[in-house]
Amino acid sequence: MQITRGMRLTQAKEYVSQKLGVSLMDLSDPVAMLEVRKERGLGSATEAGEILYVHDPVGLEAKFHIAELLDIPVNSVERFKTMTGSRG
Q1: Within 10 Å of residue 71's Cβ, how many Cβ atoms?
Q2: Domain that includes residue 70, residue range
Q3: I want to staple 1 with a disulfide (CB 3.0 to 4.6 A). Which of 12, 34, 56, 80 is the partner?
Q4: Residue 50 pLDDT class (50, 70, 90 cuts)
């Protein structure tokens, strides 16, 4: 958000928290954000003991969801769209 939208850190945090529907405090709470990421299909960095299910989004799929939810361009998503000829 800081680079793509020219926002200051505080503004970027506010933007993301509004898009995710969480408080600013929740953004820095790993337990709360794990739930948010799972609910919204944003993927997560798995840790020891965390269960990853077959339908959980990983990699590029998670990046597509992030780009769509936050309304920002993600380089790997944009490159994939260009390479496959899909612009949607």
Answers
A1: 10
A2: 9-84
A3: 12
A4: low
- 42 lies in some domain: yes
Q: What does the alpha-carbon distance between residue 17 and residue 80 come to, in Å, rounded to a whole number?
A: 27
* Overall pTM surpassing 0.70 (yes/no): yes
Is 4 domain-assigned? Answer: no
- Average pLDDT rounded to a whole number, residues 12-23: 94
Number of domains the chain is built from: 1
Non-local (6+) Cβ contacts of 52 within 8 A are 46, 58
Q: Examine residue 3 and state whether it is found in any structural domain, yes or no.
A: no
Tell me: pLDDT of 46 over 80.
no
